[in-house]
């Protein structure tokens, strides 16, 4: 079973441009109430981010511009995927180690989160993460 679960958002538009609406509570929509929204931008191509898991928090990562490579790890298997489509969001469940690499110069990564920021929810050490999931 793949670690990757995509949420496909409908792209609407005409000759004026495109629009993507993110909804909650609809089929093929964000499966949790959004309590926090943030975005990552101007990350240098040789810089990697993430390197943590969350005990409870769930997220959807949407590359609204550019692309980056995401590594997901459940402690048993790792998968690399490219986030490069602004109409697809990557659902990242709790207790999933995540890393972000290879940011394009124009990458803007929008993240929808199920909880407010809570430092106690983070697991920032991979060995400690492995202990938590055992």
Automatic annotation (TrEMBL):
<dbReference type="Pfam" id="PF05523">
    <property type="entry name" value="FdtA"/>
</dbReference>
<protein>
    <submittedName>
        <fullName>WxcM-like domain-containing protein</fullName>
    </submittedName>
</protein>
<dbReference type="InterPro" id="IPR008894">
    <property type="entry name" value="QdtA_cupin_dom"/>
</dbReference>
<dbReference type="InterPro" id="IPR014710">
    <property type="entry name" value="RmlC-like_jellyroll"/>
</dbReference>
<dbReference type="InterPro" id="IPR011051">
    <property type="entry name" value="RmlC_Cupin_sf"/>
</dbReference>
<feature type="domain" description="Sugar 3,4-ketoisomerase QdtA cupin">
    <location>
        <begin position="4"/>
        <end position="132"/>
    </location>
</feature>
């Amino acid at each position: 079973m793949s670690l990757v679960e995509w949420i496909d958002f409908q792209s609407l538009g005409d000759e004026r441009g495109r629009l993507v609406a993110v909804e909650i509570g609809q089929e093929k929509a964000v499966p949790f109430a959004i309590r926090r929204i943030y975005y990552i931008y101007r990350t240098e191509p040789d810089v990697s981010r993430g390197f943590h898991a969350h005990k409870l928090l769930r997220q959807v990562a949407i590359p609204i511009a550019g692309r980056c490579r995401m590594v997901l790890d459940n402690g048993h298997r790792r998968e690399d995927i490219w986030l490069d489509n602004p109409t697809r969001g990557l659902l990242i469940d709790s207790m999933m180690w995540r890393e972000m690499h290879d940011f394009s110069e124009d990458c803007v990564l929008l993240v929808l989160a199920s909880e407010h920021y809570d430092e106690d929810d983070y697991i920032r050490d991979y060995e400690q993460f492995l202990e938590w999931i055992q």
